[in-house]
């Protein structure tokens, strides 16, 4: 249903078309705000890897009207299995997950990233948002009443607000003079999108052995993604065949479902990619006048508790809840936004970084359980 927009934001431009951007677009357009989404890529990602959506993100998808469709495509599960390297992949622990979205949603769900992107984009367009591709936000000028946007070097209109949801290397962040940017944490991750062996029904992680973490998460009846987290290296020159070979070699210590994963990798054709972990947190304020950054533009962390996308979407939902409920775009609104978002994003970034650091240091005294459980309980309280 379309609601009437308050006079404070009648038109909003959004840079980026990731989860943060599309969540904001859906909420604003559904309230009758004119929304233009500018994405530098030629289209939505057609290929990609998997993603783990925690319960608090699943609840957010429901608020956005896409939960049923997402659930029909993804692979919901509860609990987390920890295994050790060596013959038989011995199970070390079966941990119950906190249902961070409340009792109505599973603790987590694996999903193919391009499916999530498509569902959100379709919902945004159905709500009335206009999506523009091949449209890179390159400049802006603002005064008390609005923001003049530049896209691909040319004027692209005047808006009441610009939301910079343009990811890790955000252009908008730079354009408003914020110089905090992502720093590498020292870990790198291989991800392979492969067929799901029937025995894989939830996320399973292996600690110990030649890499920091080996694991996999089901993303659908026939698919899952497998990960190997290693000390970060320059892998930029590694081609597909070599990437398969490295993942096969680095996973030799892991038995169980890893045997099937190695077979899939050896058969070739599995999509494999490599990414460095980063972290950063922009201190308040995330806005300068009528321009605000959200999602990875404002904070990033290693996916050690898989909360990055959840936090990005929570940023979007809190911001748009305030925007659609306010009479004016004033300091009170920005204060409320930062009060609700900063402590939560900070807790996730700090815990995620800490978990990675313990592993980098080889700290055997560390007890990650209480830290992970504490964050999950915090996330279970709606943003
Ligand atoms: C290896 C890895 C694994 C992860 N796993 C998980 C996980 O399992 N669960 C989880 O919750 N999170 C995970 N994350 C984190 C999650 O992917 C991010 O937090 C989330 O995707 C951020 O969404 P976003 O919308 O803020 O940014 P993005 O998804 O990065 O979207 C930004 C968009 O902006 C566009 N853009 C950039 N500059 C411009 C410009 N100037 N003009 C126009 N468009 C522009 C980009 O092309 C891009 O489409 C993981 C991250 C990594 C690195």
Number of β-strand runs? 20
SS summary, helix count: 10
Q: Which strand order spans the largest sheet, edge to edge or round the barrel?
A: 6-5-14-15-16-13-17-20
Name given to the CATH homologous superfamily of the largest domain: FAD/NAD(P)-binding domain
CATH 2nd-level architecture of the largest domain:
3-Layer(bba) Sandwich
What do we call the CATH topology of the largest domain? FAD/NAD(P)-binding domain
Give, in order, the helices and strands. Answer: EHEEHHEEEEHEEEEEHEEEEHHEEEEHHH
Fraction of residues in helix: 25-40%
Structural class comes to alpha+beta
Look at the structure and give the mean pLDDT.
95
Radius of gyration from the CA trace?
A: 21 Å
Query: Low-confidence parts, pLDDT < 50 over ≥5 residues?
Result: none
Largest sheet: 8 strands, mixed
GO molecular function, one term: monooxygenase activity
Keywords: Monooxygenase, Oxidoreductase
InterPro entries: FAD-bd, FAD-dep_Monooxygenase_BioMet, FAD/NAD-bd_sf
Pfam family, one: FAD_binding_3
What is the strand and helix layout of this fold?
Layout: E1 11-15, H1 19-30, E2 34-38, E3 50-54, H2 55-63, H3 67-73, E4 75-77, E5 80-83, E6 91-95, E7 108-112, H4 113-127, E8 130-132, E9 137-142, E10 147-151, E11 154-159, E12 161-164, H5 171-175, E13 183-195, E14 204-207, E15 213-220, E16 223-231, H6 240-250, H7 258-267, E17 271-281, E18 287-288, E19 291-293, E20 299-300, H8 308-325, H9 331-360, H10 368-380
Helix pairs in contact: 1-4, 1-8, 2-8, 6-7, 8-9, 9-10
This protein binds flavin-adenine dinucleotide.
């Amino acid at each position: 249903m379309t609601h009437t927009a308050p006079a404070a934001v009648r038109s909003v431009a959004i840079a980026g078309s990731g989860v943060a951007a599309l969540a904001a677009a859906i909420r604003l357009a559904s309230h009758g705000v004119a929304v233009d989404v500018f994405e530098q890529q030629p289209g939505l990602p057609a290929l990609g890897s998997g993603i783990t959506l925690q319960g608090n993100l699943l609840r957010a998808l429901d608020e956005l009207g896409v939960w049923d469709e997402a659930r029909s495509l993804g692979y919901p599960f509860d609990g987390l299995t920890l295994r050790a390297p060596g013959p038989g992949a011995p199970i070390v622990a079966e941990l119950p997950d906190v249902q961070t979205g409340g009792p109505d949603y599973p603790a987590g769900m694996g999903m193919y990233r391009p499916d999530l992107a498509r569902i959100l984009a379709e919902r945004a367009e159905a709500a009335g948002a206009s999506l523009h591709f091949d449209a890179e936000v390159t400049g802006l000028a603002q005064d008390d009443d609005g923001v003049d946007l530049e896209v691909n070097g040319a004027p692209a209109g005047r808006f009441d607000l610009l939301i910079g949801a343009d990811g890790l290397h955000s252009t908008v962040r730079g354009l408003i003079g914020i110089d905090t940017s992502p720093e590498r944490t020292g870990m790198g991750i291989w991800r392979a999108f492969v067929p799901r062996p029937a025995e894989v029904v939830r996320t399973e992680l292996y600690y110990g052995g030649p890499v920091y973490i080996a694991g996999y998460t089901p993303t659908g009846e026939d698919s899952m993604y497998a990960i190997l987290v290693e000390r970060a290296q320059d892998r930029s020159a590694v081609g597909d065949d070599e990437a398969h070979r490295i993942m096969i070699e680095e996973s030799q210590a892991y038995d169980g479902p890893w045997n099937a994963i190695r077979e899939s990798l050896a058969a070739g054709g599995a999509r494999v990619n490599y990414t460095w972990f980063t972290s950063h947190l922009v201190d308040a304020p995330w806005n300068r006048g009528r321009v605000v950054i959200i999602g990875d533009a404002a904070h990033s962390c290693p996916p050690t508790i898989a909360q990055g996308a959840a936090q990005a979407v929570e940023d979007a939902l809190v911001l748009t809840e305030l925007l659609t409920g306010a009479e004016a775009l004033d300091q009170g609104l920005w204060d409320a936004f930062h009060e609700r978002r900063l402590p939560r994003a900070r807790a996730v970034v700090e815990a995620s970084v800490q978990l990675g650091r313990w592993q980098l240091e080889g700290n055997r005294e560390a007890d990650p359980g209480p830290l992970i459980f504490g964050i999950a309980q915090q996330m279970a309280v709606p943003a």
